[in-house]
Automatic annotation (TrEMBL), chain A:
It comes from Lactobacillus gallinarum. GO terms for biological process: phosphoenolpyruvate-dependent sugar phosphotransferase system. It holds the Pfam family EII-Sor. Keywords: Cell membrane, Membrane, Phosphotransferase system, Sugar transport, Transmembrane, Transmembrane helix, Transport. This is PTS mannose/fructose/sorbose transporter subunit IIC. The keyword Cell membrane applies. It is a multi-pass membrane protein. It is found in: Cell membrane.
UniProtKB/TrEMBL annotation, chain B:
This is PTS system, mannose-specific IID component. GO terms for biological process: phosphoenolpyruvate-dependent sugar phosphotransferase system. Keywords: Membrane, Transmembrane, Transmembrane helix. GO terms for cellular component: plasma membrane. The chain crosses the membrane at residues 138-158, 262-280, 287-305.
Length: 270, 306
């Protein structure tokens, strides 16, 4: 990796760190972060594939209130750097995925440190507000955002400082059964993210939707877009039918029979 | 000072929207998004309060505790903009009224944003992009990035405008029927897609062999009787017929996975997901579950189960 590439990698890491907390443009999502690192290092295809793998694992990770979600930014940036430096090509993706997980945990602690520093920053903002100095509030907001960027950029720079040959040496020491096992683990670990999301959303009302989705997914001809369309349509139909039932001023659904309304006909079928 | 009307232009409101993308930048344990909220309001407050004392009061007013979903802060900002505009033009809007609106909206709105954005839109768009990316298709990340940001920016802008034009009247709308419907609809679609994702993407393959039965003569391709060269390959492929014709070897190997697949495809992934849900409900940290799964993956591979 040459100097320009290293600077670009650190730049991507900075963006990912900022976004890890802002959660707007999604530069911290593995799909984007790994792809960008792959792009600037000249291993675009590797970055894209690793991003896809990690994205599947990270689908359910979200910054919600007090719930602790692993940090996708550090996980995707660092594992992408290791994958590129390791020089194992697509064979290294399973290992890189496995390494990403402890990194995601480490990232959490870094976030906590910066959020604690931010507490001091808002006190400076208080003082500036008293003076009516809006420019300084802007400046301190930017400083706070930059600290979040450095949270990922510094570890990325440290990782780049390790010579690629050393990284290769470590990866070569890893026995085949371990890397194969980690690839298998990576295939299963996706379930944790889904479980987190389901626990948040599940209610009696929505479980049938889950069952239908699970059953239909076995039909491999249906693409994700098709499945999304089916899911959306069913949700809309459910809400529309429910509203209709409510409009019947307490009478039950049979009151809609024979109106020639397609929705009414569907209700009749129930 | 309130002689002439100060009006916020579309450009001012756009600046507020742009700033609001940094809402969580100074997220802190004490007052959470307060710094970001004040920062978002600055483009408008600067214009509304040319007097330094008024501006100082306004800035301090918005540095109090605030926390909601980062995108759902936009309708709150919109309403606050309308209120601040009235106040700057001399209407008797008290600090308490502004604070009341902010607090009243942030709770219910956070409850809408999480299921809609984090649990429905992002998993769906993310899974769409990831499933393309896994096969090395660059369109995966591009689609994810573009679709997500179009949805996000449109949402930020239109809900902020909606809040601005409706003023504090929307507080009732927001917590009432409409938003609840959106949340419920999103949960339904989200659960549907989750069911599909678990079937497709939780990969567990049990390798133990359940049975090895010899296949009757004629049921498999007799390799030694094929013509030699390319002709032979063609003949073999014709006989194999994409897996629908003759078998490739003289014994039929059935793994545990084949048995499970004929019963319910994806069952193992589903059970694993349910097990994770149960662990999470028992307050086991997701990080330990993830590490545990990797350990199990390695151990079971060494033992020849996976």
């Amino acid at each position: 990796m040459n100097a320009i590439q290293m600077i670009l990698v650190v730049g991507v890491a900075f963006l990912a760190g900022m976004e890890g907390i802002l959660d707007e443009w999604q530069f911290h999502q593995p799909l984007v972060a790994c792809t960008l690192i792959g792009l600037v290092t000249g291993h675009l295809d590797l970055g894209v594939i690793l991003g896809g793998q990690l994205q599947m694992i990270a689908l359910g990770w979200a910054n919600i209130g007090a719930a602790v979600a692993p940090d996708a930014a550090l996980a995707s940036v660092a594992s992408a750097i290791i994958l590129v430096e390791g020089g194992q090509g697509t064979a290294g993706i399973g290992t890189a995925t496995g390494i990403a997980i402890p990194l995601a945990v480490a990232g959490l602690f870094l976030t906590m440190i910066v959020r604690t520093i931010s507490t001091a920053i808002v006190h400076i903002m208080d003082a500036q507000a008293k003076k009516g100095n809006w420019r300084m509030i802007n400046v301190w907001q930017w400083i706070a955002v930059c600290l979040q960027g450095l949270r990922i950029a510094i570890p990325a720079a440290l990782l780049l400082a390790i010579p690629a040959s050393t990284v290769r040496g470590w990866l070569a020491m890893m026995p085949q059964w371990l890397s194969a096992g980690m690839t298998i683990g990576g295939g299963m670990v996706v379930a944790v993210g889904y479980a987190m999301v389901i626990n948040m959303m599940a209610s009696k009302e929505v479980w049938p939707f889950f069952a239908i989705g699970f059953a239909l997914a076995a039909i491999k001809d249906l693409t994700l877009i098709a499945l999304g369309a089916i899911g959306l349509s069913m949700a809309l139909m459910y809400l529309a039918l429910e509203a209709k039932g409510g409009n019947g001023s307490g009478s039950n659904n049979s009151g809609d029979a024979g109106t020639g309304d397609p929705l009414g006909d569907i209700i009749d079928d129930y | 000072m309130a002689d002439k009307k100060i009006k916020l232009t579309k450009r001012d409101r756009f600046n507020v929207m742009w700033h609001s993308q940094f809402l969580q930048g100074s997220w802190n344990y004490e007052r959470m998004q307060n710094g970001g909220y004040a920062y978002s309001m600055i483009p408008a407050l600067r214009k509304l309060y040319p007097d330094k004392k008024d501006l100082s009061a306004a800035l301090q007013r918005h540095l109090v505790f605030f926390n909601t979903h980062p995108y759902l802060a936009s309708p709150v900002l919109g309403v606050t903009l309308a209120l601040e505009e009235d106040k700057a033009n001399g209407a008797p809007v008290t600090d308490d009224a502004i604070q009341g609106v902010k607090v009243g909206m942030m709770g219910p709105l956070a409850g809408v944003g999480d299921p809609v954005f984090w649990y429905t839109v992002r998993p769906i768009v993310g899974a769409l992009g990831a499933s393309m990316a896994i096969s090395g298709n660059i369109m995966g990340p591009i689609l994810f990035f573009v679709i997500w940001n179009i949805i996000r920016i449109a949402f930020l802008w239109y809900t902020q405008e909606f809040g601005y034009s409706a003023g504090s009247a929307i507080t009732n709308d927001m917590s009432g029927g409409m938003l609840q419907k959106v949340t419920r609809g999103a949960s339904m679609m989200g659960m549907f897609v989750l069911g599909a994702l678990i079937e497709r993407w939780v990969n567990i393959k049990f390798t133990p062999i359940v049975s090895q039965t010899p296949i009757q003569k004629g049921g498999y391709i007799e390799w030694d009787k094929l013509p030699s060269g390319a002709k032979g390959i063609q003949e073999a492929l014709t006989q194999w017929n994409m897996g629908n014709g003759k078998a490739l070897s003289s014994t039929k190997v059935t793994t545990l996975q084949d048995n499970l697949d004929s019963l319910i495809p994806g069952l193992a992934g589903l059970l694993l997901t349910f097990f994770c849900m149960w662990l999470l409900k028992k307050k086991v940290s997701p990080i330990w579950i993830i590490i545990g799964i990797f350990v199990i993956g390695v151990l079971f591979h060494v033992w020849g189960i996976l």
